[in-house]
Amino acid sequence: NTSVVLRNVSKQFHRKTSGPLTALSDVNLEIAPGEIYALVGPSGCGKSTILNLVAGFDHPTGGSVTVDGQPVSRPGPDRGVVFQEHGLFPWLTAMDNVRFGLDVRKIPDSAEKAQYFLRAVGLAGFEKHYPRELSGGMRQRVALARVLANGPSVILMDEPFGALDAQTRLSMQELLLDVWTEFRPTILFITHDVDEAIFVADRIGVMTTRPGRIMTELRSALPRPRT
Ligand code: ADP
Ligand code: ADP
């Protein structure tokens, strides 16, 4: 009943000028439901490639990727993604950014739902603000609310706080743990900040550069209280 499973996953990219590149080689990874799993490693080691495969943005060359027991074939609302760049629509308010995906899927009461999730990320009162009127941290809060509103079982985060100053980053790490306490999603969290990984994760996968493997896993000896 494991949430995210990669079995013997390999990924080659075929580049026009410099030939094939092995980004992942025989990666095995199992993330339990409700677990926060951080992937750390140097730039280019294959972290985003793993996330893209789980998101369904790309397909493995070999091996299998499943989420809640189902093979991943395309992106879906069961897997929300938060990138370093918030990706909000600049012409929509915070509320309308969160509602957008719900309205596309014709989900009822989208305004109430959007308001609820904006409140959950600490943005009550900011519903009518446009992204340009919000700080970097607040924009990432909206991006997280937008993902949460879809009710994903898995949230994939690729350096979500990498563009924020140190203090905002800390407050976002705390927010993430609060959000986890409330909604209990499974989270794959990519970062190259080891301190950040230690703060948020139950388990940390450390990747090496060549040939794109998870070298070792570290598990918290004192599990976070999960009441
Ligand atoms: P990380 O997220 O750890 O920085 P990536 O997963 O982005 O690493 O990249 C792993 C390797 O695969 C890198 O060498 C990168 O240049 C290469 N790569 C990633 N995406 C592509 C692509 N679309 N085409 C060609 N090479 C790619
Ligand atoms: P964060 O969004 O992580 O709290 P920022 O440092 O980016 O952090 O916030 C910039 C400014 O916006 C700060 O002055 C902060 O106090 C204010 N701010 C952030 N979130 C809220 C909020 N929910 N309500 C009121 N002010 C906020």
Structure notes:
- Helices cover 31% and strands 28% of the residues.
- The protein has 227 residues and is of the alpha/beta class.
- 40% of the residues are buried.
- It has six helices and ten strands; from the N terminus they run βββαβββαααβαβαββ.
- The protein has a six-stranded mixed sheet, with helices on both faces. Strands 2-1-4-5 form a four-stranded antiparallel sheet.
- The two termini are 21 Å apart.
- The structure holds adenosine-5'-diphosphate (ADP) (2 copies).
- One adenosine-5'-diphosphate binds next to β1, β2 and α1.
- GO terms for molecular function: ATP binding.
Quick summary:
By secondary structure, this protein is of the alpha/beta class. It has 6 helices and 10 strands, in the order βββαβββαααβαβαββ. It has a 6-stranded mixed beta sheet, with helices on both faces. A 4-stranded antiparallel beta sheet has the order 2-1-4-5.
